[in-house]
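Batch manifest, entry 17 of 40.
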Amino acid sequence: MQPLVVQRCLTTQADETRALGIRLGQRARAGDCVACCGALGAGKTTFVQGFAEGYGVGANDYVRSPTFALVHTYYGRTPLYHFDFYRLVCFTEVQDIGFEEYLDTRGVVIAEWADKFPQLLPAERLEVSIRITASGSRCVQWMAYDLLYGRYFLQAD
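Output type: structure tokens
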């Protein structure tokens, strides 16, 4: 399936990647699924920290990568379920932690390393890809796979 809308920007500092996350998190709604992709150290967790802030997660809740816990829950406008698939090897492990059940809740699901298990992602989603450029900056691209996610593209750059 091809994305319906694509937008990209270049960030040169972690604060800029976080700021983009804030802007996109402000547009999130209960039921959304956000798939984050990128190499180790690309800035996925930095983006998610900003996204959580934009979604209303309190400043006292330090958002960190759930690499070992696999999922962390934060509370913004609704629950924000933050997954990390880095250590998982097969899609049955993702099923075992209940990923699909979280998609059916009234919260927002955001998953780092989501590209490891594309077969488990809903067709309707926002995908955020972060690539490290030769100069060390980040090319952040976000793609909507459903028109409902078009709100992420309004005044986002």
